[in-house]
Structures are given as structure tokens and as C-alpha cells.
Amino acid sequence: MNKLILAEKPSTARILAHVVGAREKIYSGNSNAFCYFGNGYYVVNARGHLYGLGEPEDYGFSKTYNIEELPMFPDFKIFPCGKDTEDLRTLISELMNKDDIDEIICATDAGREGELIFRHIYEANKCRKPIKRLWCNSMTDEAIREQLKNLPPDSNFDGEYYAALARQKSDWIIGMNLSRLYGVLDNYAHHIGRVKTPVLSIIAERDNEILNFKKSVSYRLEMPNGALSETAFSSRVEAERQMNFANGQTVSVISAVRESRSKNRPLLHNLTSLQQEANNLYGYTAKETLDAAQSLYEKKLITYPRTDCNYISEDMKNGVIRLVDRIAGIPEYAERADKLTTQGLNLDERVVNNGRMNGHEHHAILPDAVSEKTESLSEREKNIYGLVINRLLCAVDKPYKYTETNYEFRCNDIIFKLKTEVPEQIGWKAYDTDKEKTENVSIVSYDKDTTFTAEGITVKEIEAQPPKHFTDATLLSVMSNIDNRIDDKELKSAVSGKGIGTEATRAEVIEDLIRAGYAERNHRNIVSTQFGRDFIASIPDSVKSVERTAEWEQIFTNIKEKGISAEPFIKDVKDFVSSVISLERSPDRKRTPVHNDNPNASKREPVGVCPRCGKRVFEGKKNYYCESGVEGCGFTLWKEDKFLTSRVTPEKAVMLLNGEPVKMKAVSRDGEEYEAEYVMEDTGKYINLKRIPQEKKPVGTCPLCGKNVLEGRKNFYCESGAEGCGFSLWKEDRYNGITITASNAFDLLSGKKIYKVRKKLNGEGEKKAFVMVMNGKYANIRSAEEKG
């Protein structure tokens, strides 16, 4: 008999198949959906959400918004999601019901949402075979093999599933009902959410504070050593008068208090802190960091990234010691890691803490397979990988110690204050990525009761600053520390350290607000639009309540950890939605409809003309559809395609409906992502996206036979092929650690030098010249100095 491993992502399925020895690809009928088989295992992926709770029309409600149908409280069932994954659903159904499979291993992402994805698939196929759970923090071969030795029953994770199902049902009830309610009232495709709307309220509140901020200016006297007068003057004239009196006078040191202080090392990264650091340092959005971290995890370079924990357990201590030893093998970190090993790693409870691990599904993010060979990584992935390594090394380093001195000076009856710090032990601070300045670092020192002459005192203009706009980093901080915005002491304590949303969903919340037109990015800032502020001002406090959302997050935790029933919670959600609908439909309600004047907003307007019947095509949640409906021509263009990794945006839909090609990203059979042009193809039954064959342009002339050299996926090759001269120039030069681009290949084939910068994780770079040297039919890249 065999076992079926069901992974969530294709890349994860590929890794698991390799580990268990399932080498053979088996396809489902005539489709492209396949699984891996071998050594007693079938391995298949469940890319995307194959099943969900469906749309309102699946329960008999209208597809078009109808306020008379509200509230909608269906008896929830499981429905297939999207026609583009039908082949994959068929394959999984066949596998789950195969007679030669007697056990199923759930290997979806280790968290409540991953558990929900698997349970929906299991229930939809009416499967009753026993289930084991593969719950991996690490995707290395060794970690997976160790986990497979002793798999727990999936029933141990029932709490994860029930919490996720309660979350999914409540989100459907709130989102579908209130989005339709305000969609009708405002004639706009609103996106109301349990977390999204309170977060929008937080952004709008901050932006209103900035808009209403009243500027004010004050003036203080400043000494050359940085000391500022305690007194602030309202006019420059008065400040300059006092300055003239003070210069030349005797300054008395009336206080000099020195204290030894230290700043402890930062905690190991969880996802939020990694997103914050990447946003502050590189300007990456929360989603960009999450995507890069997920990719690094799938490439076995870091541990599971969607974690809310900053600690590791006691049994991982020796592994971290070995990990630092391996990091010492990377030239960039060699000296630093060797120094840490010599002085002893600081593995105190700030790093290793079983108590702090309680209640967390995963430990902190760590480097996993340490390698200096990161040429194949994107720049963003390299930077995120560097942040994870740097944070680990900082966390196990010595604390930063310094002497802080607080001075008070008196000059002409005006008190001046100065704070300085003198480093005593740099420790981890030498590698701190925080760009903010520390206190005034000074070698100037004064003793109490001494004097000196005031010289060079100036007037410093100080303008009161408004609050800062939110960035991804600061908004994530608010979402993860929502207890700071809650007054109720009992609730404040209950949600402390938990926040609203999850580590995995907060990035998407921000992106959803931007896509819906409620907010926008202004460089690194996230700013509410006028429409977003107007909408938040128009809805009742209960819909945007942070307290209510935080209370519900706590209920999810109680369902998972304490096993409480979700039924009272779902009833509370229904009562809440009913009360909002009753309020908005009340004759006494005087709400003014809100309009979005942004020309780029996603309004309920047609995106084009149906190529089948000439009627209007509208944007739906998952597709673009003809208003004639299924009973009419049935035109449907899906936003997501099983062969593509990018979505069909409204802009691309317009182009496709006009017969124009669009650029889309896809993944090859080897798992490599590429970009190509696609056009819309109507088969009469389905609307597909068809790739336009690209004509290959030569990048140069073959140095062996004189024919054209063309660009391939991994190399530049002679068109004569392997049967001809066999010339090949690889894009990834692992000997030199550089990537050869098409323009580089042209120069090399022309006998010219190319110049490449080898970047380091600390931002420094080394520029070198390279040339091509032929060795038989092989093309080697060597430094110009080495050839000379």
C-alpha cells in the first residue's frame, strides 16, 4: 500500500517528492495536472485555494447586488474555487479514492490556514482515510526526514481547523453582506473586512491629524557642544537678545550625572520584525518581504517565515551553535562569526526561551542551509537572506554598553541641558541596521562645579512636527501591538502581543486597501485617499472598531487553544451584521453616499465590450464577465490562470478585450519563472490566454562556426546545436559569482571586456573587468587581470 502526501505549493511538493524518493511523474488523464510517485508515496500539490465557501449566487442569492436580500446567512457548504484548477481537483480526488492508498499525510503550510485548505479538500472528496500531519518549520531534507519518522495524527490540529473555519465563515458574513450593503448605497464595489476596515480607520485617523496639524515655531539657544536651552522663546528677536547676553559669559556646570547603561541585542526575527527592518532599510513593502522570505524558505535557505515568535526552544541551542559555525564559512561573515564563537555565543533567555515559545506554532526565523552561493537569488532575496543572518549574529552577540552623562549648565540665568554617550563595548551595535542616530556621542567631558566661557552660542529654530504618515513598518507595528490602542483593561491584557490579523495576512490587508482605492503609496508612506477618509467617516463606529476586531481575534485563539465552540461567536457576528444593515436602512439614517473621484479607482463600470455578444463586460471578484450572464453568451475571463503566476488586472483585461497582447508571468515545467506576451483565445466554450511565440534574436556570432548565438533559459548557445559546434556560454558563472546578461554576451562575443560589480550583503561592491576565453567548445569567463 502507498501513502498520499498533499502539499500546498508545487515547490513544496517537489521538495517532499525528492525526500521520499517519489521520482516518477504521473498525469491525470489528458490534463497537465500531475503528481509524483515512487517508493511507496504519491505526492501532489494543492496550489491555491481549491475549495471555499462559495459566492452568494451559489446559495441562490443574486449575482448582482440586491439590498432586499440582505442579510445573507447561508447554511455554509464547500464549493470548488475557479474552473482553472478543475484538473488539479480531479487528480486529487482520484488519488484520495485510490484503492492502493491507505493513508494521507497533510503537508500544507503549518498554520491554521494551511489546515483549513487541507480539511476542505478532504471533506469535499468525502474521504475517510486516516490522516497524519507533517508540520515543518524547516524544509531541509534532514528536517523533513526527521518529521516523517513520527507523524502525529491530524486530529491533534483540530483546534487550528476550527479556528480557521470560524475565521472564514465570519469573514464571509461580514465581507459579503456589508460590501454589498455599502456597494448599493454608494454604487461602488466596496471591500469591507473584519481587519481591513479598522486598519483603514487607523490610517485615516492619522492622516486627518496630519491634515489638521497647526504649525508652530519656537526658538532655543544652542551651545557648540549641542546643549539646548531649557527655555523656549516664542520670538526670534527675544532669543537673539538672550544669545547676545549669554555669549562671553561664564557657564557653570551645575550637574553632571554619569550612568553605565546598556542596550540589549535585538530579538530574533519573526515575520513582522523582518518586514519592518526590510521596509526601513530597503523600502520593501510587507508583501514584497513576505514573498521573498517564502521563496527563501522553499529554497531551503531560511526556516518557516510566517511566524509570530522571536525565540527558539532549548533543544535547538546546539543547532544554533553549529549554524554559526557554518556561517563562519561565508567569507563575508567569517571574521565576525569566528569572533562570536571565540567569545562565546550569548544564548540566554532572550534567544532560548521555552516559556516564550508556548502558544506559538513556529520558532523564530533562522538561516537554514547556509551558503555563500547566492548567485541565483534575486537582489531582494539576497537582502532578506542577509537580514536573517545578520539578526541571528546580532542576537547572540554581546550587548552594547555605554556611559551616559546628563549635564545641566547655567549661563546668564538660563539652564542648558545636554545628554552624551560614550561607547564602552560596541557588541551587536556595530552591525545595527537602524539608521536613526544615537544620542550625542562626544569625547567632551565636564565635571560638576567647574566653569567655562560661553562662545559661539546660536539661535536654533525648532518647528513642531506633525505625526508621521504610516509606512509598512509602522503600520505593521500598530497591527501587531493593537493593545496599545485599546482602553478596556481586560481586553487589552487578553490581546497583548497578538494584534489583529496574522503574520501571514497583514501584508495582504495593506495591499487590499490600496487595490480598493481606500489608500495609496506615496514613496514609502501609506496614505488614505480622500475617498478612503470620506468612507470611514460615513460608516458607524462598530464597523471600524479596533476593539471588536481584537476581541474576535482572541476568540479565534480560544477556539484553537481551549476548544470552545464557534457557534456563539458566529451568532454574535450575524447579530452585528444585522444591526448594521438595520441602521443603514432606517428612515432616520441620514448618511450621505460616498463617491470615489479617483479616475483609476475600481468602480462598478464596464471594462470593455464582450467579443461574443457586444454587451458590457464587468469586473467580478474572481473574473471578468458579460452582463448577459450564463444564460446569455456566458463569456468569462478568469483573473487567475492555472498556467500563470500573475493575475489579469483590469488594465490587462481592457487590453485583452481590445485584442491587444499583455505581458504575463508563468512557471516552466522545471519550476523557473519567465515572462511572455499573451492574447485572448475563444475556443467557443472557454476563454483562454494563449502565449505568443517569441522570435529569438541573435545576441552575437559564434566564435567556433560563425553562426548565430541565441539566448536560452540558462545559457547562450549556437544555433547549430549540440550536433553542430556545441558552443555554450552559461548565464550563471559560479566560478566568478557573476551573471551574464544578453548585453554582456554581445560584448564578450565581440571580443570586448565586460565590467561587473560583485555586491556584498553590507552594500559594498567590487568592480572587475572580465573577458571570454575559449577552451575547446567551452566558453570560460576570466578576469581581465587573470588572462593578462
In order across it, which strands form the biggest sheet? 2-3-4-1-7-8
| End-to-end distance | 64 Å
What's the tally of helices?
A: 22
Low-confidence stretches: 759-764
Strand content: 15-25%
Supply Rg: 31 Å
Average of per-residue pLDDT values: 88
Inertia-based shape: globular
Structure summary, number of beta strands? 35
- What proportion of the residues is helical, as a percent range? 25-40%
Which class of secondary structure composition applies to the elements?
A: alpha+beta
For the biggest sheet, the summary is: 6 strands, mixed
Summarize the structure.
The chain has 788 residues and is α+β, with helices and mostly antiparallel strands.
Description:
The chain is α+β, with helices and mostly antiparallel strands. The chain is globular and about 95 Å long. It contains 22 helices and 35 strands. The strands form ten sheets. The chain has a six-stranded mixed β-sheet with strand order 2-3-4-1-7-8, with helices on both faces. Helices cover 32% and strands 22% of the residues.
